[in-house]
Amino acid sequence: MRIGLYPGTFDPVTLGHLDIIKRGAALVDRLVIGVAINRDKGPLFDLEERVEMIEAECASLSCETGAEIVVHPFENLLIDCAKDVGAQIIVRGLRAVADFEYEYQMVGMNRSLDDSVETVFLMAEARHQAIASKLVKEIARLDGDISKFVTPLVRERVLARLGKT
Predict the structure, then answer these.
(1) CATH value at residue 40
(2) Global pTM exceeds 0.90
(3) Higher pLDDT, 31 or 126
(4) Beta carbons within 8 Å of 143's beta carbon, 6+ residues apart
């Protein structure tokens, strides 16, 4: 069984994330969405809320792709999380050259720690390349329309969290 791991903080999950999840799931039998517990980032949503939103958004994607999609919170090293879930592949989404520079370093470090786990990069679809969770939150805070960047469920949750409903 080919198991892939797509890690991130997903605060909140965006259409760009969902695009990578759908395309990544087509490459494996099981795709584990690793939701990082990153206290340094000061997330808008707590871990349980982020997991819940991803599970809700991915429920139909398993049927579409034929892959099992599961959500797994983690707080350890990414390579250790990959071992924990039995992943042979780490799936990463790229938006721009700046993403590649960071990801290139991460691949080198991960391969130094365990060279049996491969990293696969998927380019975000052109219409999703500008989407970043950080920018979605900023736009929402400043009363901008985020409906082009997130699903209706996530939009509602972001606006509610920011007291904008």
Answers:
(1) 3.40.50.620
(2) yes
(3) 31
(4) 164
